From TrEMBL:
Keywords: Membrane, Transmembrane, Transmembrane helix
Biased composition, class Pro residues, residue ranges: 102-111
Entry's transmembrane regions: 12-33, 45-67, 73-92
Annotated stretches, region: Disordered: 95-130
Stated name of the protein: Uncharacterized protein
Organism: Solirubrobacter ginsenosidimutans
Lineage, highest ranks first: Bacteria, Bacillati, Actinomycetota, Thermoleophilia, Solirubrobacterales
Amino acid sequence: MTGFFDDAAQASLIVAVLLLLAAAAACGVQLARVEHPQARRLAQLYLEPLSVWCLAALVTHALAVVAAGNVTFFSLLVPICMGLAAVALRWADDDADEPAEPAEPPRPQQPEPLATPVRPASGSLWSRLT
């Protein structure tokens, strides 16, 4: 059974690395303020799920390492550092959403004067029909 957990630990670590790289790319698009609107929208949309799934893969890796009985300092240090990196990518994206300079509050516009109503010159419109 430990062979199964060894394989699961290796596979989940590979998945976690790929998810972390994809989350880093999405965060890079956000921080670099790329001009392409579709790329920015996709990066903003997928950064949080990528980092959450990376954390889930890292927890799976850590549990599989413990279940396989291969617990060492280094085997648990790698997922902890990668998890901190995934969380840091989400915080970096939150900082990128803030505008560089605070915008001035909009000035209230003066209401336009109302037009004067037009009155018929020869009385009511209904008086002509009778």
